[in-house]
Amino acid sequence: MEKIVKIATQWPKLVFAVLLLISAGAVLQLDKLTVDTSASVLMLADDPDKAFYQTLQETFGSDNTAIVYVEDKALFSRKKLQLLQSVTTQLAAIEGVEKVTSLFTLENVQTADTRLQAPLLIESIPETDAALESLRRTALNSPFARNILSSDGTATALYIHFRHALVGTAIDAHLVEAIEQAIAPLIREVVTFAPDDNTFERAFQIGAPYQRHLLATTLSSDLTLFIVLTLVVVLLCLGVYLKSPGSLLVLVVTAALSGLWSLACMALLKLPVTLLTALLPVLLIALGSLPGIRLLDHYRSSLREGQTPQAALWSMVDKLSPAFFLTFACSWLAVLSLRLNDILVLQQFATAASLALLFSFIITLILLPLYLSTFGHRLTPQPVSGHTAEPDPDRVTGSGLFGRAADALIQAMPTNKMTVPLLAIVLAVVLGAGMVAIKSNNDPADFLSRSALLQSRNHLVTERLHGMQTFTIVFSSEQDGAFKDPALLNEIQKVQDFIQQLKLFDTSLAVTDLLSHLQREAGGGDMPYYGFSGTAGPAPNYLPALWDSTAIKPFVSADYKQAIVRVWHHYTTSQDLQQALTGLQAYTDSLDKRLEVRFSGADILLAAAADSLLNGQVKSLAALMLAMFVLISLLFLKFKAGLIALLPNLAALAILFGVMGYLAIPFTVLTAPITVISLAIGLGYTLRLMLRQNEEIRTSAQDKQDIKRTLRTEITPILTSATLLILGFGVLLVADIKPIAQSGGLAVLILLTMLLANVYITPLLLSSMRFVTLWGMVTVNVSREIIDNCDLFKNMHTWQIKQIILLSQVQHIKAGTVFIQQGEVGHEMYVILAGTARVETVSTDGSRQLIITLHEGQVIGEVALVSQAERTADVVAETDLQVLVLEWKALERLGSFLPMISARLFLNIANIIGKRLADELSQQR
Questions:
Q1: CA–CA distance, 301 with 313 (Å, rounded to integer)
Q2: Can you point out the beta strands (E) in 136-236?
Q3: Residues contacting 217, CB < 8 A, separation 6+
Q4: Going from the N-terminus, what domains does the chain have, and what CATH number goes with each?
Q5: Chain segment 68-89, per-residue pLDDT in tens
Q6: How far is 85 from 79, CA to CA, in rounded Å?
């Protein structure tokens, strides 16, 4: 970190030029960005069933379809049928359309003697009313009109089948526009509703391209809104807190450059813009600003303490390097853990977000020091009256709105220390119990449930025709010509009968419907004959002719080893579909063992991905918690530290998941990043408190007040960053895409819970613990003179000496300072860690006599440690000194934290005092 800052401050023009050059190159890549709102990104990345699904579409046709719904009471009038025929022709002419299924393309399979005939249902539009009525009855009796014609014959659907590969934002927009142009002249004006033979009462499009296009346009408008609102939130929060337009501008520019670079990398890596991209503005503008806020806060504090701008800059770099890196590491590991999820869109987001946070980290390290080195002197605050007085540990540092709010938060702390932990345990248990009811949902059909227009169209089509969702039951057999065998065809009929009995799905269609139709026709059209038996009845006599007909191609493969049943349903959540499939799966398992039965389709693949969502989330959270547990345990050299950091944040997670269960909020692809990122933020707050406490231990002698001082110092910046994040994620609540809005609400809940947990629970846990950091163990300097010759540290290892120093108060004393005065009553013992000091006596006439010069490792004032006697001489710092300060209460606390090391330390103190007494006795003799 220090090297990067030195480069930025020594060559500012060069660094600025490099940033501009990289940014200019990034802008050139933006036109390569693509938007992907298709269902494929929500599926498992390596799902073997995906290849089977693609093969199925090549065999039986693509399910990439649009639907034009048409409704009119006079649908089977000559004029309306002519309009419908015209629309069918226009839709079929759209580029990329494979075929259009409508009343004008359906075959009316009939039998004549032993021959099979399959003329079109409407070869020509009848002219008489009687013929039109006959056509209506024929259409209503056709099994293949079941999914495109309402039961009363007043509503129909035109299915527009596109090539499977015909997917993309621009392509969807083109197809939607082309369909709109085809049907626009046929839509009756709502303001009049006047009868009109040239229009339909209702006509609109719906289906996959329309839904993808609506999702893409909604996502685009939401993203724009998020960026604007998040910027407003940042400007307001940081403006109130920093009161510095320049600092605010640096943070905003950092977020903008980070976003630009990450989008450029997405384009280069061919990562599309997806639903999860909606989180990037919040991540970069709100979360990405947090390290900068922390650095600026320390810089301003250093200025307030009287340091020069240059000294404040390097103090910021020196003291906050570990905290800055760890804050970044928490967030970066959080988003990276999403790579453990099997769903493609989460893997893509993990890559994009980790790059974005990395860029934010690097740019903050460059831009902020560069700004402070140039304009930092302008941030010098006015002196605060009385700021040198001993601060009240029960009140916070800082002023303004956030300072007053932080103070109110502290003052609201209950006097009984066990109140909050007990309340947290009760809430975590009671609310956490609701997590067993969490459902997962990965179906894009539910994502736009806030769109009134889309929902009204879906509802109408479902009510008049069938559900908008489909899946396919695939029957396979190794037997040659398997599905020429009536016995195996009968198994398909059994499944359809079972589906009808379940009443969990809307309708189904298979080759057996054609056979049933033929059987009924052969029986004179009487309904009792309806239903294919497979072994009896007239239908099998026509099977040889049927196999040569094109009518069966949508349902039976060319080699007759595969047959399908298409099922329409109305479920818009993956878990509801899975539950409905449970009974059907059990039934198909009992069929003829010559058959292999599988479910396929986009909905099936999405449901499988939904099942993996919770498993993937468990893996991501477990990996993050394990990584942070190991990291924090190593950093503080104790497993307890890792546990303390996790406990309050895990309680907040339990509350979040419980609330989701109780409120029936499903787990989606957007919930996954919210939970891991929020956990990382909470761990970041805990780490800040732990690191600050470690610093307070070394710089103050107040017994049992270090955690209060820690909270007093850190609460304002923590509250500021939490407010920024809560409001930043809160802007997602205005989203028109349901999972994005839900994720915003969940983020607000968990961030607020984690803030309260770290204000009220973490300090309580830390109050009984003291930790040294690995960073401190590495950086603290203990000379060989101290290790070898200091009586206090006799027979101790270097790492034991370092632990004592890191858990004790260390003072820095300037040359010429008298830090022990003759005649005063003291209770501290000092050990010189660096520098030299003089011991002098002061006579009554004011003259001074040098007794001894003390060097590194020598002990001063050991008698005062056990008896509050008057000091017998002055001790003056001859050079700048660094001294270890030990007093009895501190030693008692040290004994509770490091009992083995303290036992040796107490023995050495006893030896020092014993030797001192022996020397004095020998002198008296």
A1: 11
A2: 155-162, 202-207
A3: none
A4: 1-32+244-318+333-389 (no CATH), 48-212 (no CATH), 391-437+612-776 (1.20.1640.10), 452-600 (no CATH), 780-924 (2.60.120.10)
A5: 999 999 999 999 999 999 999 9
A6: 10
